[in-house]
Design brief:
By secondary structure, the chain is α/β, with parallel strands linked by helices. The radius of gyration is 21 Å and the shape is globular. Helices cover 28% and strands 15% of the residues. It has 2 domains: 367 residues, 3-Layer(aba) Sandwich (Alkaline Phosphatase, subunit A); 103 residues, Arylsulfatase, C-terminal domain (2-Layer Sandwich), CATH 3.30.1120.10.
Length: 482
């Protein structure tokens, strides 16, 4: 093992595990086209029970970089500004001599007006969470043919053509420069696809033609529903008249965007080889969360069902990580300590996740009983009614809504989660074990499990997170009082 391995960390937006070809055997989508990701899976530790600890874009990202849960970051919904954290993984990497780079979507610098440059440009400093060397990022944009990014000045740099392709170009340029540097490097690339809009003009034609005529039948757990938890006006009528008739085309574009993402991952893998750093570089591919597409009568994410939380997590480091499936549960806050452990760097005491680097190496050792997950409320609005906590182990998912309703699914026998076993005496042991685990985890994290507006009234000011269950934002970073 090299003294300080490099790191290339790539993650998609809204890519669910079942939409990757290598996930064969689990609720597969029809004929995914992901040859590069599938090839990476053959060479990687495949954490097959990886889940999104907070299956919403911004809360996930805050958990990813800090190794903390959303109740501790305070990042409970989208379009908020996360707190600086001196123990974030970017800071640890920089402090130990790594040349850091962040390219792509950030989504952690919200303001009251989400359409202005102040929202999109993240100034150099603590809000970049330690990514201090190379920065080519934007806060939130999924119009892939109307792209832009920012560097160290608030000057919008427009992108011609397909935004993810340009982000890969920048990542390859960084790899070329970093390979000539004596320092090890850590490159994070955050891709937009396959996040909506799912329209044919938002996807490159070479991949669109693969799926224009593909059939995507509804899964067994498809149901009528609504999306008021996403937008107050997206009720049953909207679901029936707007979303449902268009669902097959949306799935076609999603599959095509996934194929285009796979192409970009292949380009990065080839660049690592071309620079001669394959054997000394940890390469990760994952996603922030999945997509429901009408399963259980829901769209989008922000729920504990498999389609929303189960994500790919592939980790390759030749001669250190033995390829093969890993069954240990992995939640988002486990990623930072696992990467630091794999790179031989110290894990800050403030990180709440578990270092699973020994699992990646194929070495016996302790693993979490389950992956803990939090649903803190709405996706971007301060609306009550979608709060939950959940745990997923190698077999079961246990979930609890804030009103007290509980669910238990056997994901091995029932991968579409059609039968709630919470009252089944044959599964009483699993229910008692996982419900107790959720109680214990919330107590350990000081997780208040309140309604969304409770967090608004106590934790944010002008969309800026000023406190959480465990931390306070220093005065110098707080909004100026009117």
């Amino acid at each position: 093992m090299p003294e300080k391995p490099n790191l290339v960390f790539t993650f998609a937006d809204q890519l669910r595990l079942q939409s990757c070809g290598y996930s064969e055997g689990y609720a597969d989508d029809p004929d995914p086209y992901t040859p590069n990701v599938d090839g990476l899976a053959d060479e990687s530790a495949d954490f097959r029970n990886a889940v999104s600890g907070s299956p919403v874009c911004a809360p996930y990202r805050s958990c990813l970089f800090t190794g903390k849960y959303a109740s501790s970051t305070g990042m409970v919904i989208n379009e908020l500004r996360t707190m600086p954290d001196p123990d974030a993984i970017g800071h640890v990497l920089s402090e130990h001599g790594y040349r850091t780079a962040y390219i792509g979507k950030w989504h952690l610098y919200g303001t009251e007006n989400s359409d202005d440059d102040e929202h999109e440009f993240v100034p150099p400093g603590p809000h970049r969470l330690g990514f201090d060397d190379e920065w080519k990022a934007y806060n939130m944009n999924h119009d892939y043919y109307d792209g832009y990014y920012y560097e160290d000045e608030p000057d919008r740099r427009e992108v011609e053509g397909y935004l993810p392709h340009t982000m890969t170009d920048h990542a390859i340029e960084f790899l070329e420069q970093a390979s000539d540097d004596d320092r090890p490097f850590a490159l994070f690339v955050s891709y937009g696809p396959p996040h909506d809009p799912w329209t044919w003009d938002n996807c490159p034609e070479p991949f669109a033609h693969l799926f224009r005529d593909e059939r995507f039948p509804d899964p067994p757990n498809f149901d009528d529903g609504h999306a008021r938890y996403w937008h107050p006006e997206w009720d049953e009528e909207w679901y029936e008249t707007e979303w449902k008739p268009d669902r097959f085309r949306r799935r076609q574009v999603y599959a095509a965007q996934t194929a285009s993402l796979d192409w970009e991952i292949g380009r990065l893998l080839n660049a690592v080889d071309d620079q001669g750093v394959r054997d000394e570089t940890a390469f990760v591919f994952t996603s922030d969360h999945g997509e429901m597409f009408g399963s259980h009568g829901r769209i989008a994410k922000n729920v504990f069902y498999e389609e929303a939380v189960r994500v790919p997590f592939l980790l390759r480091l030749p001669d250190v990580v033995d390829p093969g499936v890993r069954t240990a549960p992995l939640s988002t806050p486990d990623i930072a300590p696992t990467l630091l452990g794999l790179l031989g760097l110290p894990v800050p005491d403030s990180m709440e996740g578990t270092d699973l680097s020994h699992v990646a190496r194929g070495i016996d050792g302790p693993v979490p009983e389950a992956a803990f997950m939090q649903g803190m409320g709405h996706t971007y609005q301060w609306e009550d009614g979608n709060e939950w906590r959940a745990a997923r182990d190698e077999r079961y998912t246990y979930a609890r809504w804030i009103d007290g309703a509980e669910l238990l699914f056997d994901n091995v026998e029932d991968p579409y989660q059609l039968e709630n076993l919470v009252d089944d005496p044959d599964h009483r042991d699993a229910y008692e074990r996982l419900s107790a685990f959720v109680d214990e985890r919330m107590a350990e994290l000081n997780d208040p499990f309140e309604r969304t507006t409770w967090y608004r009234d106590r934790w944010e000011t002008d969309r800026v997170i000023v406190r959480s269950a465990t931390r306070e934002l220093p005065e110098k970073y707080r909004p100026d009082p009117e």
